[in-house]
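**User:** Everyone, produce a chain:

**Assistant:**
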Amino acid sequence: MTHLSTPDMLDNTTIDQLRSLKLEAFATALHAQRAQPDIHTMSFEERLGLLVQREVHARAERRQTRLLQLANLRYSNACIEDIETRPDRGIERKTLISLALSDWIMRGDTAIFLGPTGVGKSWLACALGQYACRQGHSVRYLRMPRLTEELRLLHGNGQFG
């Protein structure tokens, strides 16, 4: 006895297989495409491109979310676009742009902000950290007391030369 498969059965099987391969966004996009009446006017390559683009975007978004969570930023809503570079603040726009766009992160350098209480050092560090996470870099936000404690522990364990 031969079983004939309907297109819906094949699509549901394909969607289940995509999900088992952890291609959730791809599967969701395929399901959404099935609901669009005019989707068949697009070529196979165009439809496939949209599906792949959805999966790539979803993975990038998940990675960014994970990086931001791991950064443990004190001010998670801080962003460099909101930094005020008025002359009375003492933050030069040129320096800020240089920090945001330079390759100091790629070199593995560290940024340490010094200044009196209340000038926005933590907020500035969080804004740069968030920007770095949006660029795909991992970040670790630590205040000085926690940093010195971690360095002391690493030195005591022999993990820090």
Summary: The longest helix spans residues 44-71. The radius of gyration is 24 Å. The CA atoms of residues 154 and 160 lie 5 Å apart. The helical segments are 7-20, 24-34, 44-71, 93-101, 121-134, 144-156.
